[in-house]
Design goal:
4-stranded mixed β-sheet; 4-stranded antiparallel β-sheet
């Protein structure tokens, strides 16, 4: 199992299960967008520095490469790109091992111009932050029928990227396999301090939403309704950003540097048989999706009302926990 230190600070999805609607500012670029988003230049000019994501071009065979060869190609692309930059004008925030991207702090227009002229660079955007936004659902999604045939999630491991998990909850204590924390909203946003954490207690829930979602997924029925996949195991990943406020009318894979990086991560997961599920948001929007739900390789899900197949609006009133697939074409061939 790979460590999670390779995927900050973009909060890249390992497998997004009923993730909450968390909001991130940003703007959709036009079809004729430049390599560097105008907001990046504006931020450097105004604030003196900008946190950015640099999406790199992928070699044609990258999708079919082994994880080791893929990592080597990524490292080579990152090193080559960095070698062309003025070292006084940037600092490395994170070098991804599995994604053709790199996170930088840029404090120089010279470096932005160097990035703009580099043929290896696909797109540069601000690395934006984010914030937080069963009884009926089991029969609604057909889980009861699946349970009756013996399909209960046994042998399956599901990663839930949310606010963490109550490690002492009686309905979940036997399901927790691993814990991780990934965030960049502060220097001590993980329970143990810092922006990264691994091991017992690193994903302890201080909000409650992640525990709620985990219960919908694998709850044993002890003191709470039975989950959709009660015999599956949970990898609890405590994060601080799960979806963007920017919405897209179609697949968003190539719209911004951060959607390019997300798409690359999801493609890598699909290549090894992992399905990524992302929240579409409870915003009553029937035509557009936020990221990462808008990615072509992800399955978008949302909530509906009890006994009504209606998209959830805000404010939320009597929410129904079922999965409502707003883009059904995306799950015809999920893997």
């Amino acid at each position: 199992m790979p460590t999670f230190s390779a995927i900050r600070p973009l909060f890249l999805p390992l497998l997004m299960v009923l993730a909450s609607g968390l909001l991130t500012p940003g703007a959709t670029a036009s079809p004729s967008r430049p390599t560097i988003a105008p907001a990046v230049y504006e931020t450097v000019d105004k604030e003196g520095a900008a946190l950015v994501v640099v999406a790199l071009k992928r070699p044609p065979l990258a999708k079919r490469a082994t994880p080791m060869k893929r990592a080597a190609a990524i490292a080579q692309a990152q090193t080559s790109m960095l070698g062309a930059l003025d070292t006084r004008g940037y600092a490395i925030r994170h070098r991804y091992r599995s994604v053709f991207a790199i996170a930088l702090t840029v404090n120089s227009r010279t470096v932005l111009e160097q990035l703009e002229s580099d043929p290896q660079v696909r797109r540069v955007d601000l690395d934006v932050g984010g914030s937080g936004g069963l009884d009926q659902s089991r029969p609604w999604v057909g889980a009861d029928q699946a349970h009756a045939t013996g399909i209960t999630g046994n042998g399956t491991m599901i990663a839930v990227l949310d606010t963490g998990i109550d490690t002492n909850h009686p309905a979940l204590v036997d399901d927790l396999a691993r814990e991780h924390c990934i965030c960049n909203t502060g220097t001590d946003c993980c329970p143990s301090g810092g922006s990264l954490g691994d091991g017992p207690g690193s994903a302890e829930d201080d909000n409650g939403h992640g525990t709620h979602v985990s219960g919908i997924v694998t709850g044993s029925g002890s003191g709470a309704p039975l989950g959709i996949a009660p015999d599956a195991q949970i990898i609890a990943v405590k994060v601080m950003s799960l979806r963007t406020s920017t919405r897209f009318s179609g697949d968003c894979d190539d719209e911004t540097a951060w959607t390019m990086a997300w798409a690359d991560a999801i493609d890598a997961l699909r290549a090894v048989g992992t399905l990524s599920i992302a929240s579409s948001g409870n915003d009553d929007d029937k035509a557009n999706l936020s990221a990462p739900a808008c990615l072509s390789g992800a399955v978008a899900v949302g909530a509906t009302f009890d006994n009504q197949d209606a998209v959830m609006p805000l404010p939320i009133s009597r929410p129904h926990a079922a999965l409502s697939l707003q883009r059904e074409h995306k799950i015809r061939d999920p893997l």
